[in-house]
């Protein structure tokens, strides 16, 4: 055992292990990179079955990123995990409004979550929008309402909140819908998963994943 491998060698070896343990399971190009990076982030092979992808979602996501998309997260943890340097190379940026004073004040006054208000504010941004939701089902529910109302048309919704209350139901709102999505069905997910999916898309555009 070599406990002093270089970081890039550790990652490469990790992906080799993931590929080997998946056996004969295969995924289309683009989707494979997302599935494997989520497994790499979580060490949880359940995502090979639970991740759901809308038709042509990888192609659509890449087009949005190439056009300088804004990635909106529902936690600062997800924001910190997104490769902002890689995103910037494509002319994009990542934002989280959860700590915004105006959002906090409005949420308190209305008696709703900050996640709800942050989605409403983010819906007003210009340009392609990618929503990466890893924590708050209320963000996902409100986002779906905004889409239904014709207020926002996201280029991609990454819906991977984790938990027990309204989580499964919030994710299922998007399955089979017209909005491009990558959804982690069931209770599992998290901010780290949301960030890893964004990064898997970004890395495909700037350099090949190591598998």
Automatic annotation (TrEMBL):
Superkingdom: Bacteria
Cobalamin biosynthesis precorrin-8X methylmutase CobH/CbiC domain boundaries: 9-203
Pathway in which the depicted protein is active: Cofactor biosynthesis; adenosylcobalamin biosynthesis
This protein's record includes keyword Isomerase: yes
A Pfam family recorded for this sequence: CbiC
InterPro entries in UniProt: Cbl_synth_CobH/CbiC, CobH/CbiC_sf
Key words, A-Z: Cobalamin biosynthesis, Isomerase
Family to which this protein belongs: Belongs to the CobH/CbiC family.
PANTHER family (UniProt xref): COBALT-PRECORRIN-8 METHYLMUTASE
Record's protein name: Precorrin-8X methylmutase
Organism: Butyricicoccus faecihominis
